[in-house]
Amino acid sequence: MAKRTFSTLEIFLIFLFVLMTGITVALLSLSFITSGTTENHTDSGFPTTQIPPATQGPTAIQASPTPSTPEPTLFQNFSGYHIGVGRADCTGQVADIILMGYSKTGQNARGILTRLYSRAFIMAEPDGSSRVVFVSIEIGMVSQRLRLEVLNRLQSKYGSLYRRDNVILSGTHTHSGPAGYFQYTTFVIASEGFSNRTFEYMVAGIMKSIEIAHANMRPGKIFINKGNVDGAQINRSPSSYLRNPQSERARYSSNTDKEMVLLKMVDLNGDDLGLISWFAVHPVSMNNSNHLVNSDNVGYASYLFEQEKNKGYLPGEGPYVAAFASSNLGDVSPNILGPHCINTGESCDNANSTCPIGGPSMCIAMGPGQDMLDSTQIIGRIIYEKAKAKTCKPALGYSFAAGTIDGFGTLNFMQGTTVGDPSWDSIRDQILGKPSEEIKECQKPKPILLHTGELSKPHPWHPDIVDVQIITLGFLAITAIPGEFTTMSGRRLREAVQEEFATYGMLNMTVVISGLCNVYTHYITTYEEYQAQRYEAASTIYGPHTLSAYIQRFRVLAKAIATDTVANLSSGPEPPFFKDLMAPLIPNTVDRAPVGTTFGDVLQPANPKYRVGEVVEVTFVGANPKNSAENRTHQTFLTVEKYEATSATWQIMHNDASWETRFYWHKGLLGHSNATIQWHIPDTAQPGTYRIRYFGHNRKQNSPKPAVILSFESTPSTFDIVTTW
């Protein structure tokens, strides 16, 4: 191989990479020198089918079937289920924390577009003999630590009622939520530390959503709907998909799964309670230039559905709960215009996703809108409109660092890399040691960039204990997938589980792929896709036979359910819960207001008058929004309020969960900051007098006393919305 030469920029980035990695590993090692425990689913409408009461209960391969302690039911003499739904805020930090998903250095949160919610659904037999809990959470993915903590708290509160075998936690996979809630070293480094305030905020939100669902359980019925969604997705690795056998591809009309599976829940009076929708699309309409926490396209679909059903309520409030959960989205993008070179406009839909001028960093996939926010709402509305119808050891390859057409990597890596680079290999070897011949041979044709399965300091870099789980409701089976299955991987798993059920007498089962559940293990490609070594394959950390292993384990589960032998399954080892994780790299600082001002003072007021379609903007003396993840005196950063003359009161029209508002935080020096609130006035806004209010928390410290977090609020002058000037 010819000797590689580097540009000045690349030399600087290499130096920076080595320096940051070295410092991080050193800090981690020092911090954890006494590291802790190691415990172990085309028509204009959906066909609608009512799900009969389940004859088989939920199961999981690693959970011992602990006898539940059923609570008294309302009544048992009906055909259906007891159903409970709940929703709670799980946003976490919205500043001074990296956003989880793109792994882009510098993509820190700087405010909020929408809040993030945990949506819980409990479905139980009338006699209480079995129940299942499905929770869809608007975060990047569910970490093992998050699941373990939720399960521990559920056990403390409810005993054996909610357990490891009947609870599924699933992340929507938004790439615009906070990081910092992981325990394995790869993710701790990517998160730039462990944020306990975000972790606790998420756990509390998940628990609250389950508690609300538990308290609101009532008799009802569940219906399953199916239909195809067009115009919302493309395959972002089509060259990899083409590696799958032609005979297999010929059975499908598309290189993405277009089918949406939807569970509709109603009470015995026919009143709507909620829904769960599974559809394969990546929530990456908001690209890696975004700095506002938000729930992306599937979150917008939830927002639209809940606003329609919960009329008169603010976003995030009201009894109806709609979850748009993740499925086999591994190679599926919402950026339907496809990849183009942003400097020349030509297509870069090639095996390496690279441009003739500028390389892979110029190759970006575009959504259908004028900007990323417009694209988010277009894709979210398409999904919403369809749902509204009646009806080896782990290792990361070089292409992992290349990113995807939805978000390229920072350094000069390309997708489709099957040969290592001696320069990067040398850097890796000096810092982390050489990968063994065993792992190099097992992972072929992946050239190993990081041999995470052989790295254990300060803690293991990737999980080696992985939960696999199936829960059933009548003839619906939900497979809980601990990662991102590609389109064909999901199809193979779905067919295998259906076949296993049918073999043992459970015919016509509908199998749903529910992605990013319980623990995150990156991507799962087919063996054939693995050979191309694009991003998804390079991120298939357990090697080329990962999918086969998952299929084998899920067949075991399906057989056990069909033959009623779940009790005979081994519970498997318990996953670890590590102690003493690395603190966030961004320290806490005292907030300071400029001399002569105080927190919440108005620096730029609103104009006196606006019309529909314009943007109201007010800037305040601010404080760090991450304080609000600790002190939760205020449940929103902003409100937009309208004066009602008849009652002489102010009515809240919008909060920070509304897609019409924006909250931007501008960080200054020495604890100084500003906060800007925008309201994009919608067509539905009525003429009248309005005001925008700001709610925050500032960190104060008088040494040697410990720091305290104080709440404040600001109510600037009013403005009018008029029809004419």
Automatic annotation (TrEMBL):
UniProt GO molecular function: metal ion binding; N-acylsphingosine amidohydrolase activity
Entry GO terms, CC: cytoplasm; extracellular region; plasma membrane
Chain positions covered by the region annotation Disordered: 39-70
Domain Neutral/alkaline non-lysosomal ceramidase N-terminal: residue ranges: 81-389
Residue spans of biased composition, Polar residues class: 39-66
UniProt-annotated binding residues for Zn(2+): H173, H282, E484, Y523
Transmembrane parts of this sequence: 12-33
Cofactor-binding details, from the entry: Binds 1 zinc ion per subunit.
Active site: S333 (nucleophile)
Catalytically driven reaction(s): an N-acylsphing-4-enine + H2O = sphing-4-enine + a fatty acid
Domain of life according to the entry: Eukaryota
Sections of the chain in a coiled coil: none
Domain annotation Neutral/alkaline non-lysosomal ceramidase C-terminal: ranges: 555-721
Keywords: Hydrolase, Lipid metabolism, Membrane, Metal-binding, Sphingolipid metabolism, Transmembrane, Transmembrane helix, Zinc
Essential cofactor(s): Zn(2+)
Family listed: Belongs to the neutral ceramidase family.
Signal peptide residues on this chain, from the entry's feature table: none
Name recorded for this polypeptide: Neutral ceramidase
GO biological process: ceramide biosynthetic process; ceramide catabolic process; long-chain fatty acid biosynthetic process; sphingosine biosynthetic process
EC number: 3.5.1.23
